[in-house]
């Protein structure tokens, strides 16, 4: 049975978009996804499902919209895709807490990094359906905005590594 990692957009521990991770696990279980487990309170869930990725994404987004009363984006990856994202990190020698993968629904395209604002010392690389960013001065200090990433969601490489490990453990 395939293992998926779902990364939710605009779900946080703050007031707007707040979703308890216990509720997210319960939603996944109600949708028939097995072995659902969440990682930190920012909308990361790993689960197993026999359904195709498109069906999983659609069902989870519908359920989240019912819960939140507004659309909640879901970026979905398989266990193999998460492992590849980690392995393909072009900034593997950089501190993992200062490096992110911005997950997108579609390949970012050759001109994805043409529209940037607030750039300082950040470094970038295009992935398959990700944009990698290394923040030498720290993420919290950055004013960087990437137009191509507006519908994506970022996770630092520590989180990516944990989710990839969890997904690989489930898939085996």
How is this structure best described in words?
The chain has 172 residues and is α+β, with helices and mostly antiparallel strands. The chain has 2 domains: 3-79, SP0830-like domains (Alpha-Beta Plaits); 82-161, no CATH class. It has 4 helices and 10 strands, in the order E-H-E-E-H-E-H-E-E-E-E-E-E-H. A 4-stranded antiparallel β-sheet has the order 2-3-1-4, with helices on both faces. A 4-stranded antiparallel β-sheet has the order 7-8-5-10. Strands 6-9 form a two-stranded antiparallel ribbon. The protein is globular. The relative contact order is 0.20. The model has no long low-confidence stretch (mean pLDDT 92).
Summed up, the domain count is: 2
- The fraction of residues assigned to DSSP E strands is 25-35%
Silhouette: globular
Contiguous runs where pLDDT drops below 50 for at least 5 residues: none
How confident is the prediction overall: mean pLDDT? 92
Which structural class do you get from the secondary structure elements? alpha+beta
Strand order of the largest sheet: 2-3-1-4
> Residue share in helices?
25-40%
Cα separation of the termini = 10 Å
Write down the secondary-structure element order. EHEEHEHEEEEEEH
| Strand element count | 10
Largest sheet: 4 strands, antiparallel
**Rg (CA only):** 16 Å
């Amino acid at each position: 049975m395939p293992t998926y990692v779902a990364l939710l957009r605009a779900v946080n521990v703050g007031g707007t978009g707040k979703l308890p991770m216990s509720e997210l696990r319960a939603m996944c279980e109600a949708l028939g996804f097995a072995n659902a487990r969440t990682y930190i309170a920012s909308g990361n869930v790993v689960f197993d499902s026999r359904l195709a990725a498109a069906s999983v994404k659609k069902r989870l987004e519908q359920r989240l919209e019912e819960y939140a009363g507004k659309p909640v984006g879901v970026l979905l990856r398989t266990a193999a895709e998460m492992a590849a994202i980690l392995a393909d990190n072009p900034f593997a020698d950089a501190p993992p807490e200062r490096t992110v993968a911005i997950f997108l629904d579609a390949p970012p395209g050759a001109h994805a990094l043409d529209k940037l604002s607030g750039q300082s010392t950040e470094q970038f690389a295009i992935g398959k359906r990700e944009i990698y960013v290394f923040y030498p001065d720290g993420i919290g200090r950055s004013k960087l905005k990437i137009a191509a990433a507006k519908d994506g969601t970022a996770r630092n490489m520590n989180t990516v590594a944990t989710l990839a490990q969890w997904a690989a453990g489930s898939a085996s």
